TrEMBL record:
This is thiamine diphosphokinase. GO terms for biological process: thiamine diphosphate biosynthetic process; thiamine metabolic process. Residues 4-123 form the Thiamin pyrophosphokinase catalytic domain. It is found in: Cytoplasm, Cytosol. One of its GO terms (cellular component) is cytosol. Residues 144-180 form the Thiamin pyrophosphokinase thiamin-binding domain.
Length: 188
């Protein structure tokens, strides 16, 4: 398995998770080799969560550290996404895709903050990933067609209009399909 990305950014606590959990994905490989292979390019955030030994390990490998502890007006994820956005000033942001691993499954206030980042950067494609789901924003300015790869995704799919009703939603292949349904409703 090879994970390729133009840039790998970790929120401060995310660096702990990469350090601890990446070797678990490759049990037959040496943990040190895995950590070196999947090192972040930058660790960014208010540095309230990253362990000292993790920070030291990655900085010794050349990972940059951006201590943003002076900024408590935005979340660490917001800081990371803004960094990526600003790193690519000439790129059409709608062609940029940011996969955010570990964005779900923790404290609810962190999850809600991470979902808020989807709205704050709605012109970019952000996908929040966890062990068992993914979340992304479908901007109302576009027509969306979603094709499910059932060998990888499922068995659940939720369409949740947040903040305003969906204008028109039609689905096929779900247990309860919708035909130009207009409402503010939660499906699961």
């Amino acid at each position: 398995m090879c994970i390729t990305a133009q840039v790998r950014v970790c929120a401060d606590g995310g660096a702990n998770r990469v350090f601890d959990e990446m070797p678990l994905l490759f049990p037959s490989d040496d943990a040190l080799d895995v950590r070196q292979r999947y090192k972040p390019d930058i660790i960014k955030g208010d540095m309230d969560s990253v362990r000292t030994e993790v920070l030291d390990f990655y900085t010794n490998l050349g990972t940059k550290v951006a201590d943003e502890s002076h900024d408590q007006d935005s979340t660490d994820l917001h800081k990371c996404v803004a960094y990526i956005r600003d790193l690519t000033p000439n790129l059409d942001k709608s062609n940029l895709c940011i996969l955010v691993a570990g964005a779900l499954g923790g404290r609810f206030d962190h999850e809600a903050g991470n979902m808020n980042v989807l709205y704050r950067f709605s012109t970019m494609r952000l996908i929040l990933l966890s062990d068992d789901c993914l979340i992304y924003l479908l901007p109302s300015t576009h027509l969306h067609e979603i094709y499910i790869q059932s060998s990888v995704e499922g068995p659940h799919c939720g369409l949740i209009p947040i903040g305003m009703p969906s204008v028109s939603t039609t689905t096929t292949g779900l247990q309860w399909d919708l035909s130009k349904y207009i409402a503010l409703k939660l499906f699961w």
